[in-house]
Amino acid sequence: MNQSTPKGFRLHIGIFGRRNVGKSSLLNAITRQNVSIVSDIAGTTTDPVEKPMEFLPLGPVLFIDTAGVDDTGALGELRIHKTRQIIDRTDLGIIVSEAGVWGDFEKQLVAELRTRNIPVTVVFNKSDLAEPGGELLNQLAEEKIPVVRTTAVSGKGILDLRQTLLNVAPAEFINHPAILGDLIGAGELAVLVIPIDKEAPMGRLILPQVQAIRDLLDSDAYCMVVKERELRPALDRLKRPPKIVVTDSQAFLQVAADTPREIPLTSFSILFARFKGDLSELVRGTLAIEQLKPGSRILIAEACSHHPIAEDIGRVKIPRWLTQYVGGKLEFKTVQGHDFPEDLSSYPLVIHCGACMMNRREMLTRILRCRQAGVPITNYGLTIAYSLGIFERALGPFPAALEVYGNAGKG
User: Fold this and answer.
1) Which of 15, 179, 213, 409 has a Cα at 20 to 30 A from 5?
2) DSSP 8-state code for residue 15
3) Which pLDDT score, from 0 to 100, does residue 344 have?
């Protein structure tokens, strides 16, 4: 993987701390580049600064230098809000401090990250000027929080920090889960149905399709790619049926009609519900569609910012299919990128995209926030399959999720 690796596949490392403790200098030292502006004036970093890099042996990572979160005033509140958004998508947290300033603020940062099960490393920067107290170091040791002393401007301690980050990184970023390969096994065939319509980018495939193909290759499996109109003759040419057919959710009905019942069928979006989130929880959320009524307010969440087209999936097609299913007009609110409402109480349902541009932790954070608010959450593929009446079939490759659906139906 190289610098073109999508952000959603990168380990997100958030750098947090008070203003002017040297967070930006630390990032520059780690990356060996002048990524962030360094100044003696507190609060120079007003927006999060992102730096993708190759961090062996973990591979691609994304360092995020946040604004100081001890800010005051209106501008400070905006910086704090943005920094909290970074915590939502952080896989590994670095808290930067210096001797003599550790207090309740840093303790709260540690508590926030640990509550979310985010590994934490504490860096005492400017160690050439002063050393942290022994009592504090003993306390952090008792809490099993790694401590590194650095002097960012000279590079002292940076190699120790790199090694510590490698030691505490979540295991799933060393042994990355499969998207599709584990469902079919080595030497087996998957047929991917990829419509070439108005939403298909000129001259290339969209990210989930590319990632699914790569995942199959990494799993030593075979892959056949066809458009929806060529699926039936393609299947007829095979000497034996494929292990699975995966389609773009928008072509579900036609693909379901052309795929024999004995061949498992699902969509890219449902695969990503498992890969980037919690499929069982999203299946439960999908069932809330039955509780919708005309006038219900639904939140559509898109991980990326794009210019919507005439037949946009999140803004046109899903609203149309859901409106038909419910039998009355619904109200839809759309958010993009890292924006996600603090107050979800007015929404009886949140419908998320496949989250291919997000890392898994941010998607899981959104699922957790919805659960805490008592608001069901689902995703595009699950919503489409349910509203078109092929939900059970689309869950066929996932026995655990199918069981959740069956148990909910019995309840």
Assistant:
1) 15
2) E
3) 97
> For the chain, what is the radius of gyration of the CA atoms?
24
**Residues 161-176, mean pLDDT to the nearest whole number:** 82
Distance CA 27, CA 16 (A): 11
Domains of the chain: 7-173 (3.40.50.300), 181-270 (3.40.50.11420), 278-410 (3.40.50.11410)
The owner of tokens 């109200």 is 331
Nearest to 390 by CA among 312, 296, 321: 321
Question: Cα–Cα distances in Å, from 347 out to 135, 210, 237?
Answer: 48, 33, 48
Note the maximum CA span of the chain: 74
Q: How many C-beta neighbours within 10 Å does residue 115 have?
A: 8
Dist. CA 144–CA 140, nearest whole Å: 6
147, pLDDT greater than 60: yes
CA 156 from chain centre, in angstroms, equals: 34
Report the DSSP pairing between strands 120-124 and 189-193.
Answer: unpaired
Asked whether residue 4 carries a pLDDT value surpassing 90, the answer given is: no
Nearest 5°: phi and psi at 71? -60, 160
Strand partners, 406: none
Residue with tokens 């967070």: 23
